[in-house]
Each structure stands twice: as structure tokens, then as C-alpha cells.
Design a protein that fits this description.
By secondary structure, this protein is of the alpha+beta class. The chain is built from 16 helices and ten strands. It folds into four domains: about 70 residues, no CATH class; about 60 residues, no CATH class; about 90 residues, Phosphorylase Kinase, domain 1 (2-Layer Sandwich); about 110 residues, Transferase(Phosphotransferase), domain 1, CATH 1.10.510.
Length: about 375
């Protein structure tokens, strides 16, 4: 079901870096964001939300609220309440005439709700909805680390099984899958694999069966371009038919290092993050996803991964964003906002602050 607040959320988005333009329709906004891969209105809304999630805290909070609502098992009574719509007395009579025999009609009509009872039911439904919202807000304020590590729901498990099936059906005999590495992503799962002809180990990123071949090629192409500047793993192999990309494997997530350091990030690693952003701007590849889990290390050198949201930096994108260095501007801002949300110490982003404008510091309350 698509809730009215889904559309309201789009209207709350901050488009200040998109020419301060007001969008009157979702289609107009999609065209401006160059979003074309959607099947229906719900897909379109979720794609727009995904694009903005790194720059608007309301977007990330909305996404988490929706995930919690989906993961929370609904009781039979809740399901009935969710499906049932308030009806007027006249509508009740009409429905009764359709569903019962003439002999039962009078009895059933007496059971139909009066206007006063309907109002009471609506108030009760509103109170229950407000109560659910408050519970969600409390859950969002809990420890972030526990939130990242919490057990997956049945919905997530179902998605995992779909992707495992995809992997098991891979007929390419060049690789032997050893184990899953990292968490289940929204697009698929990454595995540690061994190449059969020489025993070399790589990371294989698998995709859902519905992932288009065009988008897989775009992702691999942009990552390959970025890899030439030494900021991300090199592409080893791409198979659009069996939906996977094979690349160099890395060792450790930056997030795991942060946990050992009470959320802190060394100045050396902060400098490497800025260097990654500058080189991405030079290679004309906008990464567009500042998720902290997208940073990994190998031999103490930092790399960025997951180019699923990336796009070329061309004149059209520069015009939309109003910035010729979107990685340095928006990726740095998004990264710092995530660190603040995780309640990391100020030393974790003290060097990064040098690359955030005073206007953005003031706008997002960054000190």
C-alpha cells in the first residue's frame, strides 16, 4: 500500500542545490534527477528517496521508519484494522445487501455503525497510528551500532534467499564461491571467491535477477574509470547474464576500525577520504553514496566501494548540483552528517570540516 505521507515526504525534500526549483510532479522531479528505471509510482518515489538519502536527514529517518514498519510482524487484528476503511451508514447498508441473503439483511443492518460510532473508530485509529509513530521515533534514537547489527527480519531473509538462489545458478565455472562477506546490500550480496585456474581470491558482487544489464555495465564502467586513480578496487570480470561483477578484494571496513577506536577516525584516514573525493572529481565520477560501510582498507590504505548510485560528472549534472566538485562538496558533507548521527567524537571529522562551506555548516548545525 502506498501511503499519502509518501507523497508528502517528496514535497519536504530540500532541492536548494538543484537550481532552487520547485517541482510540481514526481515525473518532473524524476526527469530532473535522470531517474528512469522505475515501473510504477511507488518505485519512482523510492528511487527519489534513495537519491536524496545522503543529503537530507529526513530522508534517512523516513527510510528507517519504513523499514521498521515493514519488519514489524503484523498481528491478525492489526492487519484487519489496516485493511478496513471507515464507511458511512449508507455504504454499510449497500455492502450488506451485496453480501447477505434477504432474510439476514435486517439483522446485519442493525449491526452497521452509527455516525457517532464511526467518529469514535476514526479517533481510535488515529491514536493507534500516533502511538506507532512515537514507538518508531524511540526506536530510531537507540544505539546506532545495535541498529546496524540487529537480526534481519523475515523480509530481509527472503531477499537473501532470492540472491543466494541467483548465486547458486551461476554457470560460470571460472570461480568457486567460498563465503559471504559483508552485510546483505539492497542490490545483492558480496562473496569471497577463488578463481579456479590460479587460485587467486577476489570479491564477487552479485545482483538481484531484476537488475538490468545496462545498469550493471554502467556501474562496472564507472568503477573501472575510478580505479585508474587508485581510489577503489579494480574490476576483474563482469557477467551481465549471470548478474555479477568480480573485483579486487579488500581487507577491513573502516567502520570496524572506528569501533575499536570508540568511533574516532585518525587524521591520516580523514586525509585519505578527502583525497578519494578529489580524485573522483578529477576522474569525473560522482559516487553519490556516503554510507560509512562503503569505505574499506587494504594495507592501511583507504578505498571506496559500491558504485551502484554513481554517475558521470557532466555538464548536465554540474548544472543540477550547481557544483563542479560534487564528491568533495556533497560526499564530505554526507559523511560528516553520518558521523554526527552516530555520535562520533568531533576529532573523527575535525579535518573534514575544512572542506565544508560555512553555509552548509550553518544549515546543518555542524560545528
Amino acid at each position: 500500500m502506498l501511503y499519502k505521507e509518501d507523497e508528502n515526504f517528496i514535497n519536504k525534500m530540500d532541492y536548494s542545490f538543484f537550481e532552487n526549483k520547485n517541482y510540481t510532479t514526481l515525473k518532473e522531479l524524476a526527469d530532473e534527477l535522470n531517474i528512469t528505471n522505475y515501473k510504477n509510482k511507488k518505485d519512482l518515489i523510492m528511487n527519489i528517496i534513495s537519491f536524496f538519502k545522503n543529503y537530507e536527514s529526513i530522508g534517512k529517518q523516513y527510510q528507517k521508519e519504513r523499514e521498521i514498519e515493514v519488519r514489524k510482524p503484523a498481528s491478525p487484528s492489526e492487519t484487519k484494522n489496516e485493511v478496513r476503511k471507515p464507511i458511512s451508514p449508507s455504504e454499510s447498508k449497500t455492502e450488506v445487501r451485496k453480501s447477505v441473503s434477504p432474510s439476514e439483511t435486517k439483522t446485519e443492518v442493525r449491526k452497521s455503525v452509527s455516525p457517532s460510532e464511526t467518529k469514535t473508530e476514526v479517533r481510535k485509529s488515529t491514536q493507534e497510528k500516533d502511538s506507532k509513530t512515537e514507538i518508531i521515533r524511540k526506536q530510531l534514537s537507540e544505539n546506532k551500532e545495535n541498529e546496524v547489527r540487529k537480526p534481519v527480519s523475515k523480509v530481509a531473509e527472503t531477499k537473501t534467499e532470492v540472491n543466494k538462489t541467483t548465486v547458486s545458478e551461476i554457470k560460470d565455472n571460472k570461480y568457486n564461491i567460498i563465503k559471504q562477506i559483508g552485510n546483505v546490500g539492497k542490490e545483492g550480496i558480496t562473496y569471497l571467491v577463488k578463481r579456479n585456474n590460479d587460485g587467486s581470491e577476489f570479491a564477487m558482487k552479485t545482483f538481484k535477477k531484476t537488475k538490468s544489464s545496462k545498469n550493471i555495465l554502467i556501474e562496472s564502467e564507472l568503477q573501472n574509470i575510478a580505479s585508474k586513480s587508485g581510489v577503489c578496487p579494480k574490476i576483474i570480470d563482469v557477467n551481465v547474464d549471470e548478474k555479477f561483477i568480480v573485483m579486487e578484494k579488500l581487507d577491513t571496513h573502516l567502520y570496524d576500525i572506528m569501533k575499536k577506536q570508540n568511533g574516532d577516525i585518525s587524521k591520516k584516514h580523514q586525509e585519505q577520504i578527502i583525497d578519494i573525493f578529489k580524485k573522483l572529481d578529477q576522474t569525473k565520477v560522482f559516487h553519490a553514496d556516503s554510507n560509512i560501510l562503503n569505505y574499506m582498507l587494504k594495507n592501511n590504505k583507504l578505498y571506496i566501494i559500491d558504485f551502484g548510485m554513481s554517475r558521470k560528472i557532466d555538464e548536465k549534472l554540474i548544472k543540477k548540483l550547481g557544483d563542479e566538485s560534487p564528491n568533495l562538496t556533497f560526499m564530505t558533507l554526507g559523511f560528516v552528517l553520518k558521523l554526527k548521527e552516530l555520535k562520533c567524537p568531533p576529532s573523527a571529522y575535525s579535518y573534514l570540516l575544512n572542506f565544508i562551506s560555512e553555509a552548509n555548516k550553518s544549515k546543518y548545525g555542524i560545528t
